[in-house]
């Protein structure tokens, strides 16, 4: 509940108001154990508030993103997933096994600085995941080469 209260305080401090739909979506985001799609959120929200529709969830997510408390990311192909912004992180995704790992946002700080310094380009690193091959898949590939 502390996390929920902190998010609500951030919304109010940003001039946002707390509607029933916002509270329901935030509650679902706090309860989610991982990144979730809007459709995942709808299922969670409708368990308590069946009158809330998918269009309301999308509008609410958009409003919460504009207030800076929710972010969405594209983890490769497929739908965007959503999470709260109170724990800044970046995503790395294995293109072989689809494992998603959260890494500190600071890991890409030098790249962000270099892009700004060299190209005057402000990058949004958290919007897309960095795609590659995880250590487990690399190890499997290397073991297969040895055999």
Ordered list of secondary-structure elements with their pairings:
Blueprint: H1 2-13, H2 20-31, H3 38-48, H4 54-66, E1 70-73, E2 81-84, E3 89-94, E4 100-104, H5 109-119, E5 130-132, H6 135-146
Q: How many domain units?
A: 2
The order of strands across the largest sheet is 4-3-5
The total of beta strands comes to 5
Describe the sheet with the most strands. Answer: 3 strands, mixed
For the termini, the CA-CA separation is 52 Å
Q: Please identify which CATH superfamily of the largest domain we are dealing with.
A: Winged helix-like DNA-binding domain superfamily/Winged helix DNA-binding domain
Strand content: 5-15%
Quote the average pLDDT. Answer: 92
Class of the largest domain in CATH? Mainly Alpha
Counting H and I runs of at least 4 residues, what is the number of helices?
Answer: 6
The ordered string of helix (H) and strand (E) elements is HHHHEEEEHEH
Question: Architecture of the largest domain, CATH level 2?
Answer: Orthogonal Bundle
Model description:
The strands form two sheets. The protein has a three-stranded mixed β-sheet with strand order 4-3-5, with no helix packed on it. A two-stranded antiparallel ribbon has the order 1-2. It is globular. It has two domains: 1-70, Arc Repressor Mutant, subunit A, CATH 1.10.10; 88-147, Dna Ligase, domain 1. The longest helix has 13 residues, at 54-66. It has helices at 2-13, 20-31, 38-48, 54-66, 109-119, 135-146; strands at residues 70-73, 81-84, 89-94, 100-104, 130-132. Strand 3 (89-94) and strand 4 form a beta hairpin. The protein contains six helices and five strands. Helix 2 (20-31) packs across helix 3 (38-48).
């Amino acid at each position: 509940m502390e996390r929920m209260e902190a998010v609500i305080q951030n919304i109010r401090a940003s001039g946002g108001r707390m509607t029933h739909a916002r509270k329901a979506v935030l509650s679902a985001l706090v309860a989610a154990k991982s990144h979730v799609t809007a459709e995942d959120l709808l299922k969670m929200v409708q368990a308590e508030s069946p009158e809330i529709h998918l269009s309301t969830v999308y509008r609410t997510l958009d409003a919460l993103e504009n207030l800076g408390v929710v972010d969405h990311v594209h983890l490769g192909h497929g739908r965007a997933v959503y999470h709260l912004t109170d724990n800044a992180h970046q995503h790395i995704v294995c293109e072989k096994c689809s494992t998603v790992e959260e890494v500190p946002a600071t890991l890409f700080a030098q790249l962000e600085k270099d892009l700004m310094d060299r190209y005057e380009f402000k990058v949004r690193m958290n919007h897309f995941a960095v795609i590659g091959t995880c250590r487990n898949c690399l190890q499997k590939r290397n073991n297969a080469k040895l055999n």
